[in-house]
Design goal:
mainly beta
Amino acid sequence: MICICFFSISHSQSIIKKVKLSKIISETSGLEYYNDLLITHNDSGNDPSLYYLDCSGKIIYTRKFDDIKNNDWEDLTADEDFIYIADMGNNFDTRKNLMITKVSKDINDKNYEIINFNYPEQSDFNFKLKSQFDAEALITIDEFLLIFTKNRAKKITDIYKLPKKAGSYAAKKIGSLNTNSIITGGDYKKDLKLLVLTSTIDFKEYYLLKLENFDLSKKKYSIDIFQIPIKKTQIEAVKIIDSFNFWLSSENEKNGFPYLYKFSLKD
């Protein structure tokens, strides 16, 4: 059970690169790597497409899935062979069709599988402004997928575990992190055993939360918190480059365009 956290706050961070993205991906909401390209997607109600970008922000390839619906794609993650697309946006706790779509990394493969899931702790599906079962962060670790919820009511994130196989499942809660904020994105780098999450308190300031030596057996974690020095935007996704550098993406919001940022923790 993951439940106890210790915090430290640091201020030695900076944006070292800022790239304007196409308005085609104005609601960018996830980041992943493939063959030296970044992959992103839009969220609710947009085309069910993955967009492959170079580091200048140019869209190199668009991969559309005609038979899949984008109800509210919020994140994506990948292992050696597959990409997992998280259709789990649930802003008001009303959805009963939460799912993760599993597709091959091979862009010519049109096949896909669906991992349907529910939260067994949720019994009330009435409209709520302070939702507890929304989620915008998905990672793959070992043979599992982990979901980090966006709990507006308690300002924590609950962690749920799912298998990677097609089917219908009750997601298993394995613990919580007391983040004192709501989670908007996440990534895990296996060789570093590094988990990072992006979060916000008031949708005005955003933070990167860093958890080192993350695995499924530990019960206590130290969370290092870094304020992201970007204003008037909405950080929706993060991708780890190394222990000190990260890609971030933001929706267009007040800036008029979505952006890709390279965020560094080095002085």
